[in-house]
Amino acid sequence: MSRTPELLRRAQEITANPEQLQRRRIVITGIGMVTPLGLNTKKSWDGFVNGKSGISEVNFPYTEVKVAGLIKDFDPKKALDGIVQGKEIGRRTSRPIELAVAASHEALKDAKLLTDTNEIIPEVDRTRIGVKIGTGIGGAHLIVETREKLKSGERITPFDVLRVEIERVSTVVSMKFGLQGPIETPSAACATGNLAIIGGYKDIFLSDADLMLVGGVESSIDENVLALFEAIRALTLEKDPKKASKPFDKKRSGFVMSEAATVLVLEYLKHAKKRGARIYAELVGYGATADAHNDVEPSGEGAIRAMREAFRKAGGIPPSGEIYINAHATSTPKGDPVEVDAVKEVISDWQRIKMSATKSESGHGMGAAGAMEAAICVLAIRDKVVPPTINLEDPIDEAEGINLVPNEAQPWEGDLAVDNSFGFGGINATTIFKRYSE
After folding, report:
1. Are 283 and 201 in contact (CB under 8 A)?
2. Which residue among 140, 252, 407, 419 is buried most deeply as judged by most CB within 10 Å?
3. Mean pLDDT for the chain?
4. Calpha distance 436→416 (Å, rounded)
5. Measured between alpha carbons, how far is 36 from 259 in angstroms, rounded to an integer?
6. 98-135 pLDDT, tens digit each
């Protein structure tokens, strides 16, 4: 029997009843990060705040791209010990899966949801915990390996498909931690991570879950993927890794592709308070739109609507206080100025904005980017500091009047942080986080 009429009825009741909306407040209680700047949240966040670069030299055939954001020293057997059997690693799992499990493990531990044996604590209902971890490519690039096996006469095994399918970044997390709530692997280009967060928010808002693991993962740095993105002139051909990603700078020349994984624990506020959880921040607004305009060039109009809708859900632009925006800003010639113009259109008082582009440090995590930058927003709220836009020497004219936080972190006393993600095909997603208060 379909649940759709019941879900629609419940959604209408919640939307129409401000008191019910108040009861469904949703907060962040856990964070897990594996990035080019560090193998956990603390090291990654320290790297972002201190303006470090996680971009490295690469050298592949078939492409002129010489830089990428690599996660170094990640040992899946060590990171997943006690979670995934050693014989499964690499055989049933791909690197994106392994990164997703590692980030999920840290997020669950951070939220105090795991026992010492990595099982969900007994006082929490596992059927009310879901998983929405997105990816743009997942293990799909490993299909090339299958082709090589076929050409060489090597036997294809049932495990090969388990490494390739993109839904595995969520299903393996679900299986390893016994999470039986709603599950999905969104794929929406560079907006993937933010849309996964929005999806998890809706699951809790509609009372289909009490907690959701949400986020994104990407790990597909090889000659095939880099050559594909080079062909559409999206990637920089800069050879110096420390200067390759320069959002908002007049000398920017394209983005740096990176691998990354970030998972957040979203939780129904009442549930979090009942179990005494530490609350990082509250997710108060979101907007999701489409440009319906161009394959790779943003219109700006869709970004404006996404931000406006997010602020509408958040109760409007606050009358005072500094607003932090973690810009999508990938370092492309056409994308960066369009985003600046969109931000100016939405927030007329530019002096109240601190806007940084942390892809200058991490590179572009693709399907993981939105989630990684959402975590940065949450941590900025916690620590009252905004990480910098590094490599910013000569800002674009469109950004005049906006504080782009050049090269060094800045203190911040605001309460509202905005995460923008704008993907190929005109996919726009904005989330807004707020300092938690009763």
Report:
1. yes
2. 419
3. 93
4. 10
5. 7
6. 999 999 999 999 999 999 999 999 999 999 999 999 99
Select from 304, 417, 292, 314 the least CA-distant residue to 358: 417
What integer pLDDT is reported at residue 23 of this predicted model? 57
User: Cα separation of 426 and 406, whole Å?
Assistant: 28
Q: Which of 105, 141, 271, 364 is catalytic?
A: 364
Amino acid (1-letter code) at residue 16: A
User: 293 an active-site residue?
Assistant: no
- Gap between the Cα atoms of 421 and 427, Å rounded: 8
Helices (H), 38-142: 41-49, 76-79, 95-110
Q: What is the pLDDT of residues 214-254, one digit of tens each?
A: 999 999 999 999 999 999 999 999 999 999 999 999 999 99
- 74 Ramachandran zone, left/alpha/beta (phi>0; psi -120 to 50): beta
* Cα–Cα nearest to 97, from 182, 156, 185, 212: 185
- Cβ-contact 326, 369 below 8 angstroms: no
Reading the block at residue 250, the tokens are: 């007049």
Catalytic residue among 105, 141, 328, 377: 328
Mean pLDDT of 88-105: 95
The residue from 105, 190, 271, 377 that is catalytic is 190
